[in-house]
Amino acid sequence: HVQLVESGGGSVQAGGSLRLSCVASGFAGSNLYMAWFRQAPGKEREGVAAIDNAGSATYTYAVQGRFTISKDSAKNTLYLQMNDLNPEDTATYYCAAEPSPVLKPLEAYEYRFWGKGTQVTVS
Fold first, then answer.
1. Neighbour count for residue 89 (Cβ, 10 Å)
2. Average pLDDT rounded to a whole number, residues 88-117
3. What is the bridge-based pairing of β-strands 118-122 and 10-12?
4. Which of 8, 38, 46, 79 could form a disulfide with 91 if both were Cys (CB 3.0 to 4.6 A apart)?
5. How many other C-beta atoms are found inside a 10 Å radius of the C-beta of residue 96?
6. Quick one: pLDDT at residue 41?
7. How crowded is residue 42: how many other Cβ atoms within 10 Å of its Cβ?
8. DSSP readout, 51-120?
9. Is residue 73 scored above 90 in pLDDT?
10. 7 by DSSP, 3-state: which?
11. 6-34 confidence digits (pLDDT tens)
C-alpha cells in the first residue's frame, strides 16, 4: 500500500521558516522521483521543488534561494526547508512521488502518487 504522509506545516510570520517532511512507504525499491507542489485557494497546483533519484534538485523561480529540497533515502523521507517565507507562499503543500523517470519534474501530471497535503500560512 503506497502512502505519502506530509507534516510540518503551520502558521508563521513573514520572514520566518518552516520545514516540511514527507514519509514515503509501500514503494518497491528506492529510485523515486519526488517533489513538492503547492496550491493556494483559487489557483492551480504548481510545482515548487523536485529531486531525482540522483539527488539533483529543480526549483520554481519564485522559491529559488529560499527553499531547499532534500531527501533521506534511508528514512524514505523527503524534506522542504522553507526560509524567508512571505504571504505569497501561503498554500497547501503536497508531496508527490513517481517510481518511473520524470521528464518535467515540476509538472503535476508526471506524478502518480500524492500525499494529502499540509497547510502553510504566512502572515
1. 22
2. 96
3. parallel
4. 38
5. 25
6. 92
7. 5
8. E-TT--EEE-GGGTTTEEEEEEGGGTEEEEEE-S--GGG-EEEEEEEESS--SSTT-GGG--EE---EEE
9. no
10. strand
11. 999 999 999 999 999 999 999 886 688 99
